Amino acid sequence: MTARSPYDTLVTVYGGSGFLGRHVVRALAKRNYRIRVAVRRPELAGFLQPLGRVGQIHAVQTNLRHAPSVETAARDAQVLINLVGILFERGRQRFDAVHTYGAEQVALAANAHGARMVHVSAIGADTNSPSVYARSKANAEQLVLAAQPSTTIMRPSIVFGPEDNFFNRFAALARISPVLPLIGGGLTRFQPVFVGDVAAAIADAVDGKTRPATTYELGGPDVKTFKELMQFVLRTIERKRLLVSLPFFMARAQAMFLQYLPKPLLTPDQVELLRSDNIVSEAAKSAGRTLQGLGIEPEPMEAVVPSYLWRFRKTGQFRKRLT
After folding, report:
1. At how many degrees (to 10) do helices 195-207 and 19-30 cross?
2. DSSP labels for 89-112?
3. What is the rounded end-to-end Cα distance, in angstroms, of the chain?
C-alpha cells in the first residue's frame, strides 16, 4: 500500500491556537501537512495563517465539552491531535470536563473516523494523586486508550518558550516583589522542556515515527529543583530577590485566596502538584520513550529562556548592555 503524502494528509489539531498549539501547527506546516485548527474562537486564530502556505491552515469552531463539534472537526482527517488543557478551573472550564471528557470525545471521534490520534497529557498524571489536575490527566489517558487503543500519548514536563506560563510568571513576580516563595522548601524537581522540541516529537508521531499505544515522557537535558529554577530566573533578569521557604501548609493557605485572582498566581491544586517531582522516569528512559529515543536532542533552558526574559531586566541595565 502506498504511503499517504503529507500533502494529502489532513491533521486536526484541537487547541491549535494555544502556547504549544502554535508550535505544533508550525512544525506540521513545515512538513507539508494540511492542518485544521479546532478552537473555541476561530476568529482569533488568524495569526496561524502565515505559518503555512495559502490554504494549508484553516480554523473551525470546536468546544471539547460539546461532543458534536468535536466529531465535526474530525471528519475527513487522518490524524487527530489533542492539546487542550487548562491550568486552573473557572466556570464551566473544569478539569474533568476539559481534560477527561473532552479527551475522550476526541478519541471516540478518532475511532469513528478511522483516524490515528496523538494525545498530550503531562508528567505527573496519576489516578492516585491528591491533585485534581493530575487525576484528570490520568483518567483521560485511560479513557483515550479505551476509545482509540492505538493512541500515542505525550507527557511533557514543564514546557518553556517565549509565551510560557512558568518562567514569564516568576520573572514578572520578581520584578514587583522583593521575595520569591520556595514552596515546600523549593526541593521539587523539574525537567523543563523546550516547546519546539515537544512540537517536533508530536510531528514525529504524525509522521508515524512513534510506537502506537505508547506513552512518551518528554523532558529537557537538565533536572533542576524549584529553588534552582528561581535562582536561574533571577540571574537571567539580573535582579536580587530574597528566596523564602514556604511550607506546603502555608502555601496552601495562601493559595486559598490567590486562586480567585483573574489569573491565579497559585491554586491549592497546584500546591498539591508541587509535592511530587516532575521528571522523566527511569522506565521511560530505558525503553527509549523520550525525546532522545526519538532522535531529538533537547534544547537546554539556558540557550532559550534568556532570549525572552530580557524584558524583565531593569531598563538601565538592558540599555547599558546594548551600548
Report:
1. 50
2. -BTTB-HIIIIIIHHHHHHHHHHH
3. 61
**How big is the CA angle at 74 (ends 134 and 21), to the nearest 5 degrees?**
50
- The helix/strand/coil state of 1 is coil
pTM above 0.90, yes or no: yes
pLDDT at 314: 74
Whether the pLDDT of residue 67 is over 70: the answer is yes
Cβ–Cβ under 8 Å, residues 88 and 267: yes
Span 79-128, pLDDT tens digits: 999 999 999 999 999 999 999 999 999 999 999 999 999 999 999 999 99
Domains delineated in the chain: 6-159+192-219+279-298 (3.40.50.720)
pLDDT digits (tens, 9 = 90+) for 124-157: 999 999 999 999 999 999 999 999 999 999 999 9
Measured between alpha carbons, how far is 196 from 125 in angstroms, rounded to an integer?
Answer: 22
Q: What is the CA radius of gyration of the chain?
A: 20
The CA-based dihedral angle spanning residues 286, 289, 290, 295, taken in that order and rounded to the nearest 10 degrees: 100
Beta bridge partners of 245: 182
Q: Is the predicted pLDDT of residue 1 greater than 70, yes or no?
A: no
Could you give the CA distance from residue 74 to residue 68 in angstroms, rounded to a whole number?
A: 10
How is residue 236 written as a grid cell? Answer: 537571567
Distance CA 212, CA 202 (A): 13
Q: The C-alpha cell of 282 is what? A: 527511569
